[in-house]
Design a protein that fits this description.
With 258 residues, the chain is α/β, with parallel strands linked by helices. The strands form two sheets. The protein has a five-stranded parallel sheet, sandwiched between helices. α6 runs antiparallel to α7. It is globular. The N and C termini lie far apart (63 Å). The structure holds S-adenosyl-L-homocysteine.
């Protein structure tokens, strides 16, 4: 069986309990070497065979999985963050189905959550934005038409931009062309969120590229953009004393009974 497992954003103790147990039991581990914290491999059995997927093609990954299945061994395919974002898991799952090899998927803490935690930020601030756009800038991997950064930037929503730290000037220009953010809209670049070498650069959309350049950040970083990184927001309704919910009577509720 193959277990897809989210390793979390970096810190060794941000993998789920389930993910850690699967790592401990695996006969084979294939980990995304460019981003997964190698310390997690310390959980592996002594006789576990370990492969770095950064050096492998899809075909080679599948060959390793097939061989393990033939030997009756469980494989853990360890992806950074949560496997459901930029994890290239679907192509593996479909091939495994074709080969009749069972698999399951254990989620992890995505880096966009790790980065928010590092910043002490909430993406969905009342009165600011109730939407998070997760995207990337088109580079060597294209982005489908209609999803250009400029178009997505026209909403003014909270944005977490993956895989684009090496293209900060283009990111900045596209964000500004979108029309909803201004050069003063708050932004941040978070490098290696939750790793010991984490770096946080707070800036604005207008200073994004220069700030990233000054900090020497060009990979393993998220670019976060939006008013959620600013100072202005509204209180939540849920915890407003006036607001009645299923569990709590608010001060504005009509008197009950009598
Ligand atoms: N599945 C992963 C994303 C993989 S794509 C997840 O859920 O996080 C790889 C990109 O994710 C990197 O280029 C970077 O933009 C982002 N990333 C991954 N780990 C990160 C971290 N600890 N800090 C900041 N960005 C990270």
């Amino acid at each position: 069986m193959v277990h897809f497992v989210g390793a979390g954003p970096g810190a060794q103790d941000l993998i789920t309990l389930r993910g850690a147990e699967l790592l401990k039991g695996a006969g084979v581990i294939i980990y995304a070497g460019s981003l997964v914290n190698p310390a997690l491999l310390g959980l592996a059995r002594e006789d576990c065979r370990i492969y770095n997927s950064a050096e492998l093609t899809l075909e080679q990954v599948l060959d390793v999985m097939k061989a393990a299945q033939g030997e009756g061994l469980d494989t853990v395919r360890l992806h950074t963050g949560d496997p459901c974002l930029y994890g290239a898991i679907r192509e593996q799952m479909d091939e495994l189905d074709r080969l009749g090899i069972p698999w399951d998927d254990t989620p992890g803490v995505s880096s966009f959550c790790g980065a928010a935690a590092a910043l002490g930020a909430e993406y969905t601030l009342p009165g600011v934005s109730q939407t998070v756009i997760i995207t990337r800038m088109a580079g060597r991997t294209p982005v489908p038409g209609g999803e250009e950064l400029e178009k997505l930037a026209s909403h003014g929503a909270s944005m977490a931009i993956f895989l684009s730290a090496g293209m900060q000037e283009r990111v900045q220009a596209a964000l500004l062309r979108g029309g909803a953010y201004t050069s003063r809209t708050p932004a941040a670049i978070v490098y290696k969120a939750t790793w010991p070498e984490e770096k946080i650069v707070r800036c604005t959309v207008g200073t994004l590229a220069a700030a990233g350049d000054r900090a020497g950040i060009w990979k393993t970083a998220l670019i976060l953009v939006g008013g959620f990184l600013g100072q202005t927001y509204e209180r939540s309704k849920l915890y407003d004393p006036a607001f009645t919910t299923e569990f709590r009577q608010g001060t504005d509720a009509p008197a009950q009974g009598g």
